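To the wet lab folks,

You asked to see what we're planning to order before we commit. Fair enough. Below is the target structure as tokens, and below that is the sequence we designed to fit it. If anything looks off to you, flag it before the synthesis order goes out.
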């Protein structure tokens, strides 16, 4: 995320903590789509993901006063969504699945070379769910290793190993795809 956007998000978090309804709405509009994409990756079902994110927003706003650093909001909110998704998965007694259809992750990605973007999206979709979520948060959401660890509620070492394994799988997947072109 660009520094200006992070600063704006921190401002919205501080304002939302003071029960500013407009700031809360703006925060949902700013962070909500990214949380929905994350939940969809974890659940593999957009309807369940929307429910998880909606419930997570309630939890986020109730617990916002407990957040120690406004700068940590993105990772903290993502962790809440991750835990909501884990509860849904456990409740349904099914394994994690990555969404088959990934919506465009950013507006700019949709306008860039769409064939290459589609190949990368397919490669990410082919990863195990934990690796796909880790890759998406680190590379697409531009979170640090520590932020990804908080968001996924795993140690930093686990994030590093997931990224390493994912890079190898992506390299193999994309090498074959680009060799065919």
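Sequence we intend to order:
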């Amino acid at each position: 995320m660009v520094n200006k956007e992070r600063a704006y998000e921190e401002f919205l978090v501080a304002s939302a903590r003071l029960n500013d309804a407009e700031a809360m709405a703006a925060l949902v509009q700013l962070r909500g789509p990214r949380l929905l994409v994350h939940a969809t990756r974890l659940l593999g079902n957009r309807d369940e993901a929307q429910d998880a994110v909606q419930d997570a927003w309630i939890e986020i706003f109730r617990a916002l006063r407990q957040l120690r650093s406004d700068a940590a909001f993105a990772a903290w909110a993502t962790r809440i969504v991750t835990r909501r998704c884990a509860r849904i998965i456990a409740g349904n007694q099914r394994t994690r699945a990555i969404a088959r259809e990934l919506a465009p992750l950013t507006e700019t990605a949709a306008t860039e070379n769409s064939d290459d973007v589609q190949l990368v999206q397919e490669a990410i979709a082919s990863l195990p769910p934990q690796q796909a979520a880790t890759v998406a948060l680190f590379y697409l959401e531009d979170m640090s290793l520590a932020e990804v660890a908080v968001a996924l509620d795993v140690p930093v070492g686990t994030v590093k190993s997931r990224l390493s394994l994912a890079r190898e799988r992506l390299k193999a997947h994309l090498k074959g795809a680009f060799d065919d072109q």
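Structural context that might help your review: Residues 1-97 form a domain with the Rna Polymerase Sigma Factor; Chain: A fold (CATH 1.10.1740.10). The chain has two domains: 1-97, 105-181.

Thanks,
Computational group
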